[in-house]
């Protein structure tokens, strides 16, 4: 079975202005297919706004292409249907529904009623596969509200997988997680990136050092530095912004 087509994200001269304040100021970003790109920077650097622009939540000028498709100018739902999926800092799962029901609903977003009707009564293959990928196979029948914090984040990632997202934009996925949950999340990102492209906004420098394949540092709406973890850490401009490389900024 062949996996989904791997595409990269190419952003050019991205600008977002709020009432005269320029939050994103001419950002260029090349995230190659299958990358795990970490987007870091101090509070207010523009990280979330870049993701908001790419997913259609805020208006932007410039260009953001995923594969050969321009994303800017399309509405949120259309962008999602092009295979762009995101998570927010707070997991948004349906707490009273089971894990499988949450995944089923996410899968249903791209399925016809006929396909759904045909599948009633058994777990669809893609839902079973996602359950395994996110490590929740034995939790399928539990209400999502009963899951631990980390498991809810994984369920949300699973919901993106079954909805055929091929570019995952994750906003602080390990915030509030235990050490073990962070390890499991890193392993999940590595698995997911085999046939998808991943962008992670994160403040956790230890997590970044272990799982980033490449890093973009934003500062005051612009790209300050880009490269491997080692390259970015060695960049004096980054050290200046962070007042010492090893300390993560306050979230
Ligand atoms: N809807 C909005 N209206 C006005 N200003 C906004 C809006 N959204 C974001 N901003 C401003 O744009 C700038 C960039 O914000 P953004 O949330 O993208 O930063 P960030 O790098 O994600 O920060 P953090 O790490 O704190 O989440 C900030 O100065 C913020 O106050």
TrEMBL record:
Keywords: ATP-binding, Nucleotide-binding, Transport
Record GO cellular component, one term: plasma membrane
Keyword flag Oxidoreductase: no
Pfam families: ABC_tran (PF00005), BCA_ABC_TP_C (PF12399)
MF annotations from Gene Ontology: ATP binding; ATP hydrolysis activity
Domain of life: Bacteria
NCBIfam families: urea_trans_UrtD
The protein's name in its UniProt record: Urea ABC transporter ATP-binding protein
